[in-house]
Design a protein that fits this description.
The chain has 146 residues and is α+β, with helices and mostly antiparallel strands. It has one domain: Sandwich (Jelly Rolls). Helices cover 19% and strands 36% of the residues. Strands 6-5-8-3-2-1-9 form a seven-stranded mixed sheet. A two-stranded antiparallel ribbon has the order 4-7. The chain is globular, with a radius of gyration of 17 Å.
């Protein structure tokens, strides 16, 4: 009979191995005004649930685009996310509804102010530093599979 600590260690190792074996997410090139960015596309349930958890950094002008199945008032939080992020909630037509700054490793909800189809996470302050807020139009969404 194995000690419980050995079983827990085996489960954690299996989970870490499964995460490492997942294929990389597809990327899309997006535009916000004169700014171009690259975003990993989290368009499946598991990818949306994992998000950017566990990552220690993200290159500038890179982010993660969450694609939801239908427009709704979605919320994001930062449990197990190590880097500070800003999230823009985006409607079906690609227009930013609202932007929120999020603190790492918190469960504080940050919610869309209207029916969002997408959420774009970038390094915290990325949107504010570029003067991008509610009403800005995101281009490149037409490249996504629907």
């Amino acid at each position: 009979m194995r000690p419980i600590s050995a079983l827990v260690g085996a489960v954690l190792l299996t989970a870490a191995t499964a995460r490492a074996q997942q294929p990389p997410l597809p990327e899309v090139r997006l535009g916000l005004g004169m700014h171009v960015l690259r975003a990993e596309v989290a368009d499946r349930y598991r990818a949306r649930m994992e998000g950017l958890t566990g990552r220690r950094s993200m290159p500038q002008s890179h982010g993660m685009l969450f694609v939801f199945d239908r427009p709704d008032k979605y919320c994001m939080w930062m449990k197990n996310t190590l880097i500070p992020l800003s999230v823009a909630f985006i409607d079906e037509g690609g227009r930013i509804i609202n932007v929120a700054d999020m603190r790492p490793q918190t469960e504080e909800p940050h919610c869309a102010a209207g029916a969002a189809r997408y959420a774009l996470e970038m390094n915290r302050g990325w949107f504010a530093q570029r003067g991008i807020g509610a009403g800005a139009q995101l281009s490149g969404l037409e490249k996504l599979r629907r």
